[in-house]
Amino acid sequence: MNTRSRAAALAVSAVLLAAVAVTYTVSHDAESAPAGGRTSADGRRLQFLANGRLSYTSPPGARRVTPVVCDRAYAAAGTVACLRPVGALSAGALVVMDAGLRERRRVPLTGFPNRLRVSASGRMVAWTLFIDGHSYATTGFSTRAGVLDTRTGRLVTTLEDFTIIKDGAPYRNRDVNFWGVTFAADDNRFYATLSTGGGRHLVQGDFAARTVRTLAPGVECPSLSPDGTRLAFKSAVAGSPKRGWRLSTLDLATLRRTPLAETRGVDDQPVWLDGRTVGYTLQLSDGTNQTWAVPASGGGRPRLLLDNAGSVSPPP
Hints:
Elements: H1 3-29, E1 47-50, E2 53-58, E3 62-69, E4 72-76, E5 79-84, E6 92-97, E7 103-109, E8 112-118, E9 124-132, E10 142-149, E11 155-156, E12 163-166, E13 169-171, E14 177-183, E15 189-196, E16 199-206, E17 211-217, E18 220-224, E19 230-236, E20 245-251, E21 257-259, E22 271-274, E23 277-283, E24 289-295, E25 303-307, E26 310-313
Parallel strand pairs: 12-17
Antiparallel strand pairs: 1-2, 1-26, 2-3, 4-5, 5-6, 6-7, 8-9, 9-10, 10-11, 12-13, 14-15, 15-16, 16-17, 18-19, 19-20, 20-21, 22-23, 23-24, 24-25
């Protein structure tokens, strides 16, 4: 073989080897990406939990799994919050990280992780723990909802210390429970669920004033839309949590409710993936999670967004 032929052969071999390497890399990255793994509608990546590990979609259709272990996770504007699971020899904790997953703050917690949110600015972190019981469908459960202001360091360990205005009058009862906090753009106003006297109510809170007031009955686990005009939430079927929950949206100006197209029971705090789409987690009979999406208009139909995934956060 002359020099020119040998050079041509080597060039072809190099191209083939490069193709094999690219194929291996894509296949290796996609090994843990089951059918349904995808990004948001506009192609931006999503954060979620897969088998308890913090993970990210990585287009096209693959996912990146990190070593960070959480029971619940959420992220916004460079703030990543993680509720660490309770171990046999360890207590739980809220861990606040930056976008590079470097720890910025750790708050020891007692209870089982349940809900977690970061405000759109990345400043406020709110969480809910089960102190007694493990389901909102049972009686006798107890929750604790807390808030951390990452800018000032102010820590509220329980919203039960706030002043409650129920139906226009001051209210106090030993059976009060809060859960499912979501913050407005000003990082002061927030919405949450208040349970007391056998009823469940949507409340609007003022973090600086340490007050909450009831707005509407039968609204649980609210999530504020990006434009601040609507809440996505779950509500008990026929007012009975034992019959499960359905997803709806609430117009805050009119308090008009719009049932969403998902007719299966959803026990989750929904998330706005964008201004038109609501995401949520469904748990299969074998215990694995799936993340689904449905139009916020009430039309359309649900679609599988991510298989083997829960605790999804909207794109940054």
